[in-house]
Amino acid sequence: MEPVRLFNQSTLQIQDCGAKGRGVVTTVAIPARTIIDISPILLFPSEEYSTHGRYTQLDHYTYRWKGGMALALGLGSMFNHSNSPNVGFQRDIDSGLIKYSTLREIHAGEELCISYGPNLWFPDMEDSQNQDKNTNNGSSGGASNGAMSDSEDETAESFFSRIQFSDDDDDDDDDEDGNGSS
Ligand SMILES: C[S@@+](CC[C@H](N)C(=O)[O-])C[C@H]1O[C@@H](n2cnc3c(N)ncnc32)[C@H](O)[C@@H]1O
């Protein structure tokens, strides 16, 4: 593999994003179509993932990948979901990397979000109905909310089909538009 230059992330920070848990926020404005991060991945072969990984915290963090499931190391695991994402991603299967780029101009202080696709496994806190519920219940929500129990009875097959991050080498252009659903 050729050496890959990574990015200085001094203008991005991880912070508490309320009911969504931690998220990535920019401290400066970023122009559209700017690469903001390149995350190397750790590949879990399909069998290992279906036997072990899916029963762990990885269940919240992995991307579909050729031959299994991939954990993005670094920022790639920290982007929350939005139905109107401001960041797209493109997988480089051969190099084991995911490249993240802005889809539009982003203002200082904005959270950077990708689209996980249509089949979310948690109540989307960007959805105003869920925000209301969260406020009314006084629930903290976030990465460990009860939504995961909804998937406990799923088969491995349905589990793999509900994970949003893009599944197909040929749909990288879609990913760039933030619509990299399976
Ligand atoms: C890849 S992790 C993102 C980082 C995570 N927020 C954290 O604190 O580690 C995905 C998890 O973040 C939470 N999440 C992401 N986007 C969300 C959203 N729009 N609404 C509610 N929860 C969200 C969910 O719990 C999901 O399983």
Automatic annotation (TrEMBL):
Domain spans labelled SET: 2-117
Superkingdom, taxonomy of origin: Eukaryota
Annotated InterPro entries: SET_dom (IPR001214), SET_dom_sf (IPR046341)
Disordered, as annotated region: 124-182
CDD domains the record matches: SET_SpSet7-like (cd10540)
Compositional bias of kind Acidic residues: 166-182
SMART domains attached to this UniProt entry: SET
Name used for this protein in its record: SET domain-containing protein
Protein's organism: Linnemannia exigua
